[in-house]
Amino acid sequence: MIGKPALPTAPGDAWERIPLDNRDGLFDRLVQAALFASDGWTFGPDGPHRNPGMTNVEITRQQFREGFAHLLELGFVDVDAERVNAAPFMPMNRVSS
């Protein structure tokens, strides 16, 4: 496990990223588990296929929420609450690799 970089001290400061390493396929396995949960909501009784009229933004947000919650509930993702609470701001933009 790579150590976590220092938090920036103010908005606008660079937020150093932790590199993702998928050589062992672990990241892809986690994505697959999250997608399965997301699809369960999408095609289930609360999803857009049975409740037309939801906006694309509502659908995307709920899909993400379901997938992320699934990973948390399974214990695959541990949230570093101390780091989250110490962050002076949350970066909202991500540059795709």
List keywords for this structure.
97 residues; mainly alpha; 0% strand; globular
What's this entry about, in short?
The protein is mainly α and 97 residues long.
Strand elements, count:
0
Number of helices: 3
3D shape: globular
Q: Hey, roughly how much beta strand do the residues contain?
A: under 5%
Fraction in helix: 40-55%
What characterizes the major β-sheet?
A: none
Structural class call reads: mainly alpha
Note down, in words, how this protein is organized.
By secondary structure, the chain is an all-alpha fold. The chain has a domain at 26-86. It has three helices and no strands. The protein has helices spanning 26-42, 56-73, 81-86. Helix 1 crosses helix 2. The longest helix is centred in the middle third of the chain and has 18 residues, at 56-73. The chain starts with 25 loop residues before the first helix and ends in an 11-residue tail after the last helix. 5% of the residues are buried. The mean pLDDT is 89.
Topology:
Elements: H1 26-42, H2 56-73, H3 81-86
